[in-house]
From TrEMBL:
Keyword vocabulary terms for this entry: Calcium, Disulfide bond, Glycoprotein, Lyase, Metal-binding, Signal
Class of the enzyme per the UniProt entry, highest EC level: lyase
UniProt domain Pectate lyase: residue ranges: 152-349
Protein's pathway: Glycan metabolism; pectin degradation; 2-dehydro-3-deoxy-D-gluconate from pectin: step 2/5
UniProt family annotation: Belongs to the polysaccharide lyase 1 family. Amb a subfamily.
CC cofactor note: Binds 1 Ca(2+) ion. Required for its activity.
Species of provenance: Lactuca saligna (Willowleaf lettuce)
SUPFAM superfamilies: Pectin lyase-like
Protein name: Pectate lyase
Length: 426
């Protein structure tokens, strides 16, 4: 009899507690408390801005129950990935990837419509007259090519790799690394896609005779050690690339380059991460349009995520984890629209500010239009706005990506090079 009374009492207690628990799980924080009440946020049972707790909840959902490493359809959560990752026939229809670009590079087709060129040889022995089957041979052809790889390979470039117009480098289906040598250069060309590779430990390499197209091999000076450099080029999409350990910068977009989207990339272990505009005197960069979307900037990154000059930049739905100087910086009156990013500051008090105005007094930078909209700030992070509301031109508006309401740590969790198996969703 006593046992039955205990069960009845426990049942009543449980019925009372469950609504209270669930009310706590799904109630929204009061407006204005997101930055101030850190302790309360950390103590919450499930905090929608906490990667561990939200990921655990997402993993238990019917649509998110499979392991992340399998890269199933349910894992494609941002609008670029949703376009292609759920399709098991991606290997037979590789060029459909070109239909998925968003942001200012929308319309970039790379090698779409051209032949499939398969890299079979990882060597780079002759940069003036590269062998057929090498990556350098493929990127220097004068026709559209969709470049793939027949197996896993590490390519150590003897000199910088100069990519010609209308090319796609597509690493899906193999583990492709560009490492321990020269980096990639997109110089004064149009219509390039770089997807699904890992670029790391790039070094300063000697110059020399380097093939740039079928009809020309020019003399190049010593490289500067950038992992990936876009110079004077238009319509460039860089997607699902992992970049780390460059001798200089990881990714530079400079000298009248425009219509560029950098998406789903994973940046690690580097000081000068991303430069958008190389010099304050390069006023031609005022027409630069760059989208930075769905990327992850990891704890080993120090600064320039990005560092902007002159142009118009949308920085949307990126994950910033414990930068060591600043996250977003600039000079020479750039317009920066920061939307739906997550900024997790390091513990040091001096590292809380997201933004940095370089080489300018407040009387100057207070008029620069830097705007934060629906960003998430954790561990004391804060964004210093300036210049009032941003009113984009029609051209600037046309390339904007609507910020997603899905938590950023979910949108970006598969940033970088993916492991894709033919016949399966990636």
């Amino acid at each position: 009899m006593g046992k039955h009374k205990f069960v009845l009492l426990f049942t009543h207690i449980l019925v009372f507690m469950v609504p209270v628990i669930f009310a706590g799980l799904f109630s929204s924080p009061e407006p204005g408390n997101e930055l101030d009440d850190k302790d309360a946020a950390m103590d919450a049972f499930i905090n929608p801005h906490d990667p561990d707790s939200f990921a655990a909840e997402f993993a238990n959902d019917d649509k998110g129950s499979e392991r992340r490493d399998l890269h199933t359809t349910s894992e494609a959560t941002n609008d670029i990935d949703k376009c292609w990752r759920g399709k098991s026939d991606w290997a037979e229809n590789r060029q459909a990837l070109a239909d998925c670009v968003l942001g200012y590079a929308k319309g970039t087709t790379g090698g779409k419509g051209g032949d499939i060129y398969v890299v079979t040889d990882p060597s780079d022995d002759d940069c003036e007259n590269p062998k057929e089957g090498t990556l350098r041979f493929g990127v220097t052809r004068d026709r559209p090519l969709w470049i793939t790889f027949d197996k896993d390979m590490v390519i150590t470039l003897k000199h910088e790799l100069i990519i010609n117009d209308d090319k796609t480098i597509d690493g899906r289906g193999a583990s492709v690394e560009i490492a321990n040598g020269g980096g990639l250069g997109v110089y004064k060309v149009n219509n390039v896609i770089i997807h699904g590779i890992h670029i790391h430990h790039i070094k300063v390499v000697d110059g020399g005779k380097i093939r740039t197209c079928e009809s020309k091999a020019g003399s190049r000076s010593k490289s500067d050690g950038d992992a990936l450099s876009v110079f004077g080029s238009t319509k460039v999409w860089i997607d699902h690339v992992t970049l780390d350990h460059g001798e200089d910068g990881l990714l530079d977009v400079t000298m009248k380059s425009t219509a560029v989207t950098i998406s789903n990339c994973d940046f690690n272990h580097h000081n000068k991460v991303m430069l958008l505009g190389a010099d304050d005197s390069h006023t031609e960069d005022k027409d630069m349009l760059v989208t930075v979307a769905f990327n992850r900037f990891n704890e080993g990154c120090t600064q320039r995520m990005p560092r902007c000059r002159h142009g118009f930049f949308q920085v949307v739905n990126n994950d910033y984890i414990k930068w060591q100087m600043y996250a977003i910086g600039g000079s020479s009156n750039p317009t920066i629209l920061s939307q739906g990013n997550r900024f997790l500051a390091a513990d040091e008090k001096k590292l809380k500010q997201v933004t940095a105005r370089n080489n300018a007094a407040e009387d100057e930078w207070k008029n620069w239009k830097w705007k934060s909209e629906n960003d998430i700030f954790l561990n004391g992070a804060y964004f210093v706005e300036s210049g009032g509301d941003i009113q984009p031109t029609p051209e600037q508006s046309a390339g904007l990506i609507p910020p997603s309401t899905i938590p950023v740590e979910i949108l970006t969790r598969d940033a970088g090079k993916l492991k894709c198996l033919p016949g399966q969703p990636c």
